[in-house]
Amino acid sequence: MSIDPILVKSSFAAVEPHGTEVTAWFYQHLFEQHPDVRVLFAEHLDDQQDRLFAALGALVEHLEDTDTLVGILTDLGRRHAGYGALPEHFPAVGVSLLATLRHFAGDAWSPQAEAAWAAVYGVVADTMGRALVAAGPAGADG
Ligand code: HEM
């Protein structure tokens, strides 16, 4: 795996100041492309929006600390079993996430940044997906 942490961090830093606009754009993109996943989310996305980007920030922060990263992703994946998320949803979320970062990163975006993020998302989806499947449909409490 060849993830350039500097590219990931600098592009995320360019996106962060756009605040809640970023997550709103992300969910609009996701639900337009995949209306079927809309029912999994609560009616009001406001809290969830902040949590999703806070989680991304934590992942970016711990990019070079594999143990912490895997711990965060395993817990997150386990909880997602309880939300009805499935491994097959991850590619759709990945496409919308990359589209969102590309949209807001401005000059900090490049083919190299895109490749680095694709690699990060591959690790995220793989680790979360495995924890999710291991937890089963009952989720973390099951
Ligand atoms: C990069 C991958 C993802 C990250 C970082 C992420 C992050 C989060 C976070 C932080 C929460 C808040 C609750 C918690 O911390 O447990 C959450 C909730 C949720 N996520 Fe994700 N998620 C990801 C992928 C997905 C995927 C692929 C799906 C499937 C469609 C999904 C569906 C949901 C749902 C349904 C909720 C609950 C929302 C609600 O309370 O209404 N997530 N996610």
TrEMBL record:
Claim: Transcription regulation is one of the keywords in the record: no
Domain Globin: 1-133
UniProtKB keywords: Heme, Iron, Metal-binding, Oxygen transport, Transport
Pfam families listed in its UniProt record: Globin
Domain of life of the organism encoding this protein: Bacteria
Family named by the database record: Belongs to the globin family.
Protein name: Globin domain-containing protein
Lineage, opening ranks: Bacteria, Bacillati, Actinomycetota, Actinomycetes, Kitasatosporales
